[in-house]
Amino acid sequence: MFTRLNVVTKEADSMDLGLSGKNVIVTGSATGIGRSVVEAFVREGARVVAVDIRDDLIEEYAAATGAPGATDAPGRIVAVHADLTQAADIQAAVDRASEVFDGPPDILVNNVGAGRLASFEELTDDDFHRTFELNFFSMVRLCRALVPAMHAAGGGAVVNVTSDLSRQAEDVIVDYAASKAAVASVSKSLARAYAPRVRVNNVAPGPIWTPFWTDAEKGWLKAIEAAYGASGDDAVAALIADRGIPLGRMGTPEEVANAVLFLSSDAAGYTTGSTLAVDGGTVRATN
Q1: Which of 8, 87, 180, 206 has the fewest beta carbons closer than 10 A?
Q2: Residue 273 contacts residue 188 (beta carbons within 8 Å)
Q3: pLDDT-based confidence at residue 66 (cuts at 50, 70, 90)
Q4: What pTM was estimated for this model as a whole?
C-alpha cells in the first residue's frame, strides 16, 4: 500500500470491452500511465505497438509476460524505439506499426507528455518549444499520418491524454498546461473532421502517482517537498489539501488506463470530441 495514495493498487480484471484482436498504438508507453494503458489493452486481448524512447523497458515487460514481439495472436506487444520530438522518428514508428498491423491501427493513444514545475518567469522560448514538440506536435504528427488512413479503412478511435491543467491552469508548469490545452483543442477539430468513422476523445488525468512524481532526479515530488516545506507523505498531503481534491488522494495509472479503454471501445460509441476527467474532482468548471 502507498500511503500517499491511500489505496491498494492491484491489477484490474479484464473488462471485456470487445477489444480482443484490435490493433493499438500507444505512445509514451514505457512507464506510468502509458505502461498501464499497454497492460490494460493486453489483458483485453489487443495487439499493441508500444512506442517510447525507452523501448528496452517495453521489451522487458513483453518478455516477462510471454509476449516477445510476436504479432500472430492477440495480446502481443511490439516495442518501437522513437524520440517523439523528432518527426523522422515518428514516421519510422508509423511505418513499423503499419508493417506489424498490415495497415493503420484501430486505436491510437497519444499519451506521451513531460514537463517540469517551473514558473512563467523561469520558462524560456526553448522550454516552450521542447515541451510543445513532445506533448503537442507528436500528437499532431501521429494523427496526420494515421487518422486519415484509419478513416479510409473504415474507422477507429483516438484517445489523447491531456491533463486537468489543460482545463484549470496553475501558476507553474505553464508550458505543459498550454501544450495539453492545445492537444484538447485539436482533438475537437479532429472529432468533427473525421466523424462519424473515427471518434476522437481526451482523457484528462489529475495528479497520478507515477514516475512523473517519483523519479529521483526529475520527479515533481522534490519540488513539492520544497514548496510546502515538508517531505514524503506530508508534502503530498499538503498538495492534496492545497488543490482541494475531493477524493483526498492521488490517482493511479490503472484508473486512467480504464478510462482510455472505455473511450477506445464501442461502449463509448456515441462519444466524440469529449474530455473524460480522471482527476479526483480537482477541476471545478462545469464544462
Answers
A1: 8
A2: yes
A3: low
A4: 0.91
